[in-house]
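sry for the spam today, last one i promise. struct tokens for design, 374 residues
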């Protein structure tokens, strides 16, 4: 402790040697100041000590917390490293997913393009098939007059287009409908019935009698009694006539002459028959020539049948006329089978094949115009 300074006004003189030591006296007015200083000092010391303890505690706590923070920091670093690894792994997976997504999008675009191409190609294929069918039907219609086949081809084409249900095909379907209407109003020609009649005629050719193999015709009237039978009957009647006395020998002679002449005439008619024949060759046919005559007639009728199916009316009628000439020249026209055959040929010849066939140009042009569009 420092000593308090003395009064500045007192002269400094050494104390007397003989005087006894005394305690310096503090003035009464300065005592409270010293007490306050002492109290303040004690308070400061106490505050310092308290602050020191608190600071020590804080230091220890901070050190503890720093230690814990280091542990947490290490754990955090481990966790951060783990999270970073997880993030990297997730990022790699995300990259893989993104690449797969890009690949899937590319595949989807490729599939959409492929679907569009397939859809377009399917329409092109369908139209190409329809065009081929209509072209074939048109050729059959013009060459063979196959109206029913052309109608079926047009109906199938219309059904094929109706299943696609696309407005672009409306024009084609309208053209097909117009061609169908024109075909349906055509007069019907019974090609099948005419062909069957020709087949019936061909099947009867082998059984038709030729002029060269003609046999005597059996008399339709009952045969007259022979001469011997007449004599027996006359001898049986003679006694009755003589008994009555009414028999005249002249009438008896006339009756006998008449009977004998009739019998002779009947025998002569059975032996000799006179008939007018245009060609003598028809009566002189050998069996081989007769076979070829029948086969020639069959070929004529088969050619007529082919011309019928081809709607070639000129060839059809020409072959029928030639067949009728062969029948009239070489076959017995008095026979019932020959007459039936000639009647069938006349029915066939009366059929009208001269029908102007329409074309399928509207449908074909509609299909080709649609295909020509870009």
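last one done:
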């Amino acid at each position: 402790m420092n000593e308090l300074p003395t009064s500045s006004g007192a002269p400094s003189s050494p104390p007397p040697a003989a005087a006894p030591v005394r305690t310096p006296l503090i003035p009464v007015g300065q005592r409270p100041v010293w007490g306050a200083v002492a109290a303040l000092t004690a308070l400061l010391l106490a505050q310092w000590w308290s602050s020191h303890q608190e600071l020590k505690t804080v230091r220890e706590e901070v050190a503890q917390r720093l230690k814990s923070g280091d542990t947490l920091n290490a754990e955090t670093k481990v966790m951060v490293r783990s999270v970073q690894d997880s993030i990297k792994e997730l990022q790699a997976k995300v990259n893989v997913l993104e690449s797969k997504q890009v690949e899937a999008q590319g595949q989807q675009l490729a599939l959409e393009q492929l679907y569009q191409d397939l859809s377009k190609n399917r329409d092109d294929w369908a139209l190409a098939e329809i065009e081929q069918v209509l072209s074939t039907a048109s050729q059959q219609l013009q060459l063979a007059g196959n109206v029913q086949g052309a109608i079926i081809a047009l109906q199938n084409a219309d059904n094929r287009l109706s299943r696609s249900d696309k407005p672009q095909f409306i024009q084609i379907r309208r053209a097909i409908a117009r061609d169908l209407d024109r075909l349906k109003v055509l007069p019907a020609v019974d090609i099948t019935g005419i062909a069957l009649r020709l087949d019936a005629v061909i099947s009867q050719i082998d059984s038709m009698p030729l002029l060269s193999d003609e046999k005597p015709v059996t008399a339709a009237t009952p045969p007259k009694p022979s001469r011997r039978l007449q004599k027996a009957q006359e001898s049986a009647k003679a006694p009755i006539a003589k008994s009555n006395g009414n028999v005249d020998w002249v009438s008896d002679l006339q009756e006998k002459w008449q009977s004998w002449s009739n019998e002779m005439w009947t025998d002569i008619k059975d032996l000799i028959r006179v008939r007018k024949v245009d060609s003598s060759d028809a009566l002189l046919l050998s069996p081989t020539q007769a076979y070829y005559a029948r086969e020639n007639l069959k070929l004529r009728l088969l050619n007529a049948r082919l011309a019928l199916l081809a709607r070639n009316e000129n060839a059809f009628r020409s072959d029928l006329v030639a067949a009728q000439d062969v029948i009239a020249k070489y076959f017995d026209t008095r026979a019932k089978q020959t007459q039936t055959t000639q009647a069938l040929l006349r029915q066939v010849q009366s059929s009208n094949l001269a029908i102007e066939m329409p074309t399928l140009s509207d449908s074909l042009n509609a299909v080709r115009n649609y295909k020509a569009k870009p």
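The radius of gyration is 72 Å. ok im logging off now
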